[in-house]
Structure formats: C-alpha cells, structure tokens
Amino acid sequence: MEKEVFKPGAIKAIGLPEDVFDDIAPGVLLSWRARVAVSSPSHLRRHSHELRVMLPTAYLHRRRREITDTLVDLLITTVRRINARADTKVTEEFVAELKRVSGKENILFKMTQAALEAPEETVSEAIYPVVPGGVDTLVALWHEYQHKDTSYRQHRQRVFKASYTNHYRAGLIQILEALEFGSTNTMHAPMMTALALIKRYKAETTHRTKYHATGETVPVEGIVPAELAEPMYRTDKNGRQRILRSVYECGVFQTLREKLRCKEIWVHGAYKWRNPDLDPPADFEDKREENYARLRKPLQAKLFTAELLEEMGAELSALHDALPSLPWLEIVDRKKGGAIVLSPLEPLPEPRNLRRHKATVRSRWGWCRCWTCSPRPRCAPAAWTP
Fold this sequence. Notes:
The chain is mainly α. 56% of the residues lie in helices and 4% in strands.
C-alpha cells in the first residue's frame, strides 16, 4: 500500500495539469503510452523536442489515472478481504456451536420426513405432531434463530474491527489521503463529511483519542451499518455517550466500498472510477433518441429492465436444463477446490498447416539445439541464407 500511495504523489510533484489531454482521444493516448513503455530513455532522447516533451507527458498522464484506479481497487479489495475473513471465522464458530446443541438435527429430519410422506396435508396436521413440544418448540427455535442472526452480524463486525484496528487501518487511511472523492448527489454529503473526519483524526488510536472531540459533528445515519450501532457507542467516565472512532471508521469504509462500486461516489483523476457523468458524450441528452437508437436500447427504463430480466431468465433456465446432460461438468462443494469442475478436454490434433509450417522452417533454417542458443536459429551465418 505504501508503494502504491507514493506513486501518485511523485507524479503530482511534476505539476502536470489534469486537463492537458482532454481533447485527445483515449485510444491515441493509449498508443502514446505503449510507445513510451517499450522505449528506453536513450531512444526517447533521439526524438525532436516536441516529442521528447509530449510522449513522457502522455505516459505520466495515463499512468496517473491507472495508479488512481489501482488505489481504488486496492481499497475495495482490502475491505472485501476483511469482510470475507470475518465471515469465514464467525461462520465456523457458529457452525461449531450449532453442532454442540443436541436435538435440532433430529427435529429437522422428522419435519422433512413428515412433509415428504404427507405432502397434501396442512402444516398443523403433518408437521406439528412430529415435533416434540409442537408449535411451542418451533416458536422457540425461531426466536433463537433470530437472536443468533443478530449475534452473528454483531460478532462479525467485532472480528472486522479487530482486523481493521490491528493491521489494516494505517494502510487504508494512507489510501484515503491519496484519493480525492467526489459526488454530484447532495444525498452523499454526509459520507464526504465522514471521510474528511477520518482524515483529520488519522493519528493512531490511543487512550486519549479513542473518541471524537466533544462537539464534533459525526454523521451516522446512512454511514454506519445497523449492526455497528450498538458496539459503536460507549459511555465515558463522565457519563456521556460517545462514538468509538475505530468502530465508526469500520462502518465508514464498509459503506464507502458499496458506494464506490455503484459509482454513487467517484474519484477525481481516475479513469475506471471517474465521475459517471463523464461517461456519455457531452451532447448525449440533446441527441438522446439518436444515441439510444444507435445503442439499440429502448428509451423507457421499465421496458429495458423487463427485456433484461426476460433474457436473463431464459438463459438461466437453459443452463439449468442443460446441466444434468453435460458429462464434462460437475457441481461440487466449494471446499473441494471450486463449485464448478470441468473434466480435462482431449487434445486436438495439430493443424495440418501448422505441421507444414514447422517442416518448412526446419528445412530452410533449422534450429540450434545447444543450451546456449536454444531456441535461437543455428549459430552459423550461412544457415540464415534462404
């Protein structure tokens, strides 16, 4: 993270304007960037003064956007990794606890057997009699499940906070300082305030700074997930209810990840994560009907989503019907290495033209088999003569 954060600062120190290539097509910029990437400094010095200035400038301009995109990807991936590890750890703990409770599996098996033996009967006639305790037992199990679900989410957030505080916090805040976030929707103004608040309190959390300053405006609604509301508040020694900074930052980063992925919040200087208003052409609204016709999309949003849902449903149904008849595909448990297992394909015969091409190359030039030259052509200069 430190290496990636250093890069945009080094490019920014050059003083390259953001809009220097706004009137140049992206494809042209990519070609200039590729040209510089494969050229040595000595080759670049041989060009005219204009090219010596323009080509490195285009390279740095493009690299700055790529590095910014990389930092955003790193932020999103890191938060997702913390979430995934917390999910895995907490799930294993809850499954182990569930297995220690006796009787629940037997109740489930009895209910399943009764439902299969009497599918036409009502629940009260078929299911309730086979459950020890009847409906009262089922109500108690349901209440226990609801309690476990709440405890699961809260415990997962505690594990997330532990990973964030002990390991990831310094790197994530460095990325946060290197990026400049923006939003055209005033609805997300509280998120921008929360990000600025984290930057101001970037010092390591200690016993003196574990709370925000008294009187500080700390946006919470729509910023912090509901399961973090209880562990986020703490009563200090003066009896005042305060917000724990570490828990608050965990909630902000989780919400920021979701808003970045749907581009409700974007990043200045990025390409992939840029302002979505810059994606369509400048005259897109003026030529809306013409542009939609060229895209072959309907103007009505409901019609577009209906067609998309119909297409997705048809394709998923076709996949569902085809899966049992595919001998080379198997759906297995993820713990075995992957949910989808494909049998190895038989090697195809070598194309006839490729065999002829190889024979022609060997007959005309041959190949040197010594370890110093392989796979180069023969060392003898005469071997290069057609």
